[in-house]
């Protein structure tokens, strides 16, 4: 893929195997390298023993010339500061350029204490060389374009992970969200949706999202944006990853 649009797989494709113990994060890194992807997204929630394995994961990914990104379910304005700092430290130890957080409950405009706490965490991330990429959450709070924009406006060092499926779940136009967020987008979770909000995200091209319009909007951005597949792999994770990679290759002609 283009150097400006590296494509990563996620531990989400291997969620069942990780939860059952059939695979480790090291196995996922190995498989990611064999798919032809450019990197792998790791997550604390699916990584037993992560605290003692950060350096080895970084070494293995480096050996395979893979990028690493780090994502957790922590919320910038709702999780405790120690958890947020710990996640940022883990991202830095992995060499991840970003840490994915959700916003959580966005502070009211006049909640100076709440905004100050978020700014402290953003400053800590900057000190560690990690960019906080806030993601539009699939549910509430913290999932709408207005909430994300409010956060980015109040804390300029924040960037965003644009989840194309989650904006759709909030009945919001994804290309319009891309245009509105523009140069604050550093990461994007790639997926398709079946049209049933209760269904899990599916592989690119297997659902109803206007992917052509969405990718046209993303591809028009001049900055480097990391792309990451975010759909479950089921019983054929590698096959679904290869299907999604083929979709992206076909777009590039």
The count of DSSP E runs of length 2 or more, i.e. the number of strands, is 8
Calculate the terminal CA-CA distance, rounded to whole Å.
Answer: 11 Å
CATH structural architecture = Alpha-Beta Barrel
| Largest beta-sheet details | 8 strands, parallel, barrel
- Beta-strand content estimate: 15-25%
Radius of gyration: 17 Å
User: Order of strands side by side in the largest beta sheet?
Assistant: 1-2-3-4-5-6-7-8
Query: How would you describe the shape?
Result: globular
**Sequence of secondary-structure elements:** EHHEHEHEHEHEHHEHEH
The portion of residues assigned to helices is: 40-55%
Count of separate DSSP helical elements: 10
Mean pLDDT, as a whole number?
96
Give the total of domains. Answer: 1
* Low-confidence sequence ranges: none
Classification by helices and strands: alpha/beta
Q: At the third CATH level, what is the topology name?
A: TIM Barrel
